[in-house]
């Protein structure tokens, strides 16, 4: 075979294609599968098992990670279903261009990256997997509190840089005996609360619902103002407000105790980032751990680089277990819906 030529394995007789002319694996499959099968566009990484199950069920699946909004708008018209995680935004323009779209699957919990009104106006179903990542997000929040309490990432970085600053890190705190305030006592907030309770913490919660789904024995429900005044640690587990208003801003920081620890594994817009920076500078907030940012990835790195801030790149649902559950669920949803 000469350079720049390939032999296709789909033919009995060897056929040679110029590199430019050779069909992709995808179009090779299209040539042998029925043309009227439903087509699914997967925009963010999902487990291979989900893709395999969908294909085995007869769906045509294209994986296109990292599409620009313009590229998505151009492509989306050819699909019956779209799968997204949090990175891909499905706005009004993309939905308007989605001529044959019937289903949007959010492989995860938050649907704030999808224009729900635009989807509803076109009768496009929007489905998510609200339970699959509960434990993973709750465990990350707990891990971040433990890391903040003893400044584990900072101590690790110091030792790795050849230093041994035992004294500088000798003012850690124990979680047992402290009060954790959970804003949004849903599945995740409730799971975190039960774990915290098992560690000997008192747990208070604030929720819009009188009987929140994550309520558990021992949880004391308070108003947000009361919670902020009582909590030594504050964790956010609420969806973003429709107006995009921060739940924790200047006023809320002012109501908090001195030296509070803050964890946000929910959505970046829930915390006013300028107000948090000021609260870290003044010492009102002793440490903050952020898995989410107002813009992801954040362009302004002042918060991420603050010595009392620990960051992770939106990893709440990124465990093998959560993603495996999500994968099975989305394949099931699409095979039922299409
Ligand atoms: O809403 C969610 O499910 C979480 O924020 C996780 O988002 P991801 O699927 O983009 O990791």
Topology:
Elements: E1 5-7, E2 16-18, H1 25-32, E3 39-42, H2 48-56, E4 60-63, H3 69-75, E5 81-84, H4 92-97, E6 103-106, H5 116-121, E7 125-128, H6 134-150, H7 152-160, E8 179-183, H8 187-198, E9 202-206, E10 220-221, H9 224-230, E11 233-236, H10 250-255, E12 260-264, H11 273-282, E13 285-290, E14 309-311, H12 320-337
Parallel strand pairs: 3-4, 3-5, 5-6, 6-7, 8-9, 8-11, 9-10, 11-12, 12-13, 13-14
Antiparallel strand pairs: 1-2
Helix pairs in contact: 2-12, 6-8
Bound molecules: 3-phosphoglyceric acid.
The site of 3-phosphoglyceric acid has 12 residues, from loops.
Concise synopsis of the structure shown:
The protein has 338 residues and is an alpha/beta fold. 34% of the residues lie in helices and 17% in strands.
Kindly give the count of domains.
2
Strand order of the largest sheet: 10-9-8-11-12-13-14
> Using DSSP, what is the number of strands?
14
CATH superfamily of the largest domain: NAD(P)-binding Rossmann-like Domain
Report the end-to-end length measured between terminal Cα atoms: 43 Å
Question: Largest sheet at a glance?
Answer: 7 strands, parallel
Low-confidence stretches: 1-33
Q: Categorize the overall geometry.
A: elongated
The share of residues in extended strands comes to 15-25%
Mean pLDDT: 91
SS class: alpha/beta
Here the CATH topology of the largest domain equals Rossmann fold
**Ligands, ions, cofactors:** 3-phosphoglyceric acid
Task: List the total number of helices.
Answer: 12
Q: Summarize the helix and strand pattern as letters.
A: EEHEHEHEHEHEHHEHEEHEHEHEEH
Share of residues in helices:
25-40%
Gyration radius, in Å: 24 Å
CATH class (first level) name of the largest domain: Alpha Beta
Q: What's the architecture of the largest domain in CATH terms?
A: 3-Layer(aba) Sandwich
GO biological process, one term: L-serine biosynthetic process
Organism: Pseudogulbenkiania subflava DSM 22618
Pfam family, one: 2-Hacid_dh
Family: Belongs to the D-isomer specific 2-hydroxyacid dehydrogenase family.
């Amino acid at each position: 075979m000469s350079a720049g030529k390939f032999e296709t394995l789909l033919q009995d007789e060897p056929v040679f294609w110029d590199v430019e002319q050779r069909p992709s694996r995808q179009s090779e499959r299209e040539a042998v599968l029925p043309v009227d099968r439903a087509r699914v566009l997967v925009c963010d990484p999902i487990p291979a098992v989900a893709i395999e199950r969908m294909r085995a069920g007869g769906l045509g699946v294209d994986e296109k990670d990292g599409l620009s909004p313009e590229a998505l708008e151009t492509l989306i018209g050819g699909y019956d279903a779209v799968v997204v995680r949090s990175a891909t935004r499905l706005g009004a323009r993309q939905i308007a261009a989605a001529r044959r779209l019937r289903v949007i699957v959010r492989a995860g919990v938050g649907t704030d990256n999808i224009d729900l009104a635009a989807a509803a106006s076109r009768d496009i179903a929007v489905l998510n997997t609200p339970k699959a990542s509960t434990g993973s997000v709750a465990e990350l929040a707990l891990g971040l509190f433990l890391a903040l309490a003893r400044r584990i990432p900072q101590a690790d970085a110091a030792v790795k840089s050849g230093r041994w600053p035992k004294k500088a890190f000798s003012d850690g705190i124990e979680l047992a005996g402290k009060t954790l305030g959970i804003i949004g006592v849903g599945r995740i907030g409730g799971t975190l609360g039960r774990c915290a309770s098992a560690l000997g913490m008192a747990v208070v919660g604030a929720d819009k619902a009188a009987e929140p789904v994550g309520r558990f024995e021992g949880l004391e429900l308070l108003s947000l103002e009361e919670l902020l005044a009582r909590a030594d640690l504050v964790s956010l587990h609420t969806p973003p407000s429709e107006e995009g208003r921060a739940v924790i801003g200047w006023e809320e920081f002012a109501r908090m105790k001195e030296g509070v620890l803050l964890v946000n594994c929910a959505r970046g817009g829930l915390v006013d980032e300028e107000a948090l920076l000021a609260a870290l500078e003044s010492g009102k907030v002793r440490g903050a751990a952020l898995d989410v940012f107002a813009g992801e990835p954040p362009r302004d790195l002042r918060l991420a680089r603050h010595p009392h801030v620990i960051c992770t790149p939106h990893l709440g649902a990124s465990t093998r277990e959560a993603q495996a559950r999500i994968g099975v669920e989305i394949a099931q949803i699409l095979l039922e819906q299409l």
